[in-house]
Amino acid sequence: MGAPRWPDLGVLELLTAVGSTGSLGAAARQVGMAQPNASRALRGLERDLGLSLVHRSPRGSRLTTHGLLVVEWAAAVLEPALRFGLACDSLRSHARGRLGVAASRTIAEYAVPQWLSTLREESPEVQVMLHVMNSAEVCDAVQEGTSDLGFIEAPRAPRGLRSTVVGRDRLLVVVAPAHPWARRRRPLTAAELAQTPLVLREPGSGTRETLEARLAPLELAPPALELGSNDSIRISVASGAGATVLSELAVRQALAAGTLVEVPVADLDLERRFRAVWSGPAAVRGPASDLVRIARATVTA
Q1: pTM attached to this predicted model
Q2: Which of 40, 62, 63, 287 has the greatest number of CB atoms lying within 10 Å of its CB?
Q3: Which regions span the lipid bilayer (predicted)?
């Protein structure tokens, strides 16, 4: 004997509505089904069960004895199905109100707070969970599904992720005022920069990846120091640890205060793009779409 066929819940709902309204047309309207489709569905159910369920006449439709029994039994199926549907609706609503965001450290420190403040003003019901990591880790989090949306400074998004540019940034070479480069009369060259041990972010950071990509095919000297945050690098360089390359966003205040000095580079373009990354559909949706729109409108170099 083959496995029993699962009943179509929509047809059971229709049959129940026929019993309560006494009309196939009214029952079809109640469940949101066109009447010809409703007639075909009921005939299909009768055929599958091998039973006559509805007596049709010019005065309307009424359930047969078998139909009444089937409707009574159907209640035990439809009620938990309704609860299941309501629970799924609640879950979807809850999911639409939650947004997991992963952001590279530079973007998280200098741009994301403003973006999230604007998002909260527009959509106070959205709960955002922000994770701060380097650009490579952001891409991993989005690919693994632990974050819905990511923001990176890497030159490009890895294969398998969707991306869109949300803004532009510029990397600057900076040193302490007492550093010899601070008194240079000629701009630095890319070759000089590549040959100099620098204070750098860790491998996998967008800042490090951008610098290495722009200096290729020159071989970058081993770093003087590797540090995991913009703040630690900025403090170390201002204290005389050497030269570094950081986002203009990260050093703007230090340049204005005179604790760091920018060193021009003659033959090196250090402009880069901030990208939003996500997986799945081509177009980002829901609160993630709102945050991308806000980022585009507010990010500045």
Answers
A1: 0.64
A2: 287
A3: none
User: Domains of the chain: which residue ranges?
Assistant: 9-95, 98-298
DSSP string across 3-36: PPPPPPHHHHHHHHHHHHHS-HHHHHHHHT--HH
Of 263, 113, 117, the residue nearest 179 (C-alpha)? 263
Q: Which residue would you say has higher pLDDT here, 154 or 258? A: 258
Give how far the C-alpha of residue 30 lies from the chain's centroid of Cα atoms, to the nearest Å. 38
250 contacts 110 by C-beta, under 8 angstroms? yes
**Domain covering 9-95, topology:** Arc Repressor Mutant, subunit A (1.10.10)
Kindly report which listed range (71-75, 231-235, 274-278) carries the lowest average pLDDT score.
71-75
Quote the CA–CA distance of 128 and 24 in Å, as a whole number.
48
Residue labelled with tokens 């005022």: 177
Residues 111-139 have pLDDT tens digits of 999 999 999 999 888 889 999 999 999 99
- Please give the structure tokens belonging to residue 211: 């610098």
Arithmetic mean of pLDDT over the chain: 88
User: Which positions ≥6 away from 236 have C-beta within 8 Å?
Assistant: 199, 225, 227, 242, 244
Q: How far is CA 74 from CA 7, 56, 81, in A?
A: 9, 21, 10
Contacts of 48 (CB under 8 A, 6+ apart): 5
pLDDT of residue 97 exceeding 90: no
Q: Cis ω on the peptide bond leading into residue 217 (within 30° of 0)?
A: yes
Helix or strand holding residue 262 (H, E)? strand 261-262
pLDDT band at 5 (very low <50, low <70, confident <90, very high): low
Count CB atoms within 10 A of the CB of residue 180: 8
How large is the C-alpha radius of gyration of the chain?
32
CA 60 to chain centre: 53
**What would the CATH number be for the domain defined by 98-298?**
3.40.190.290
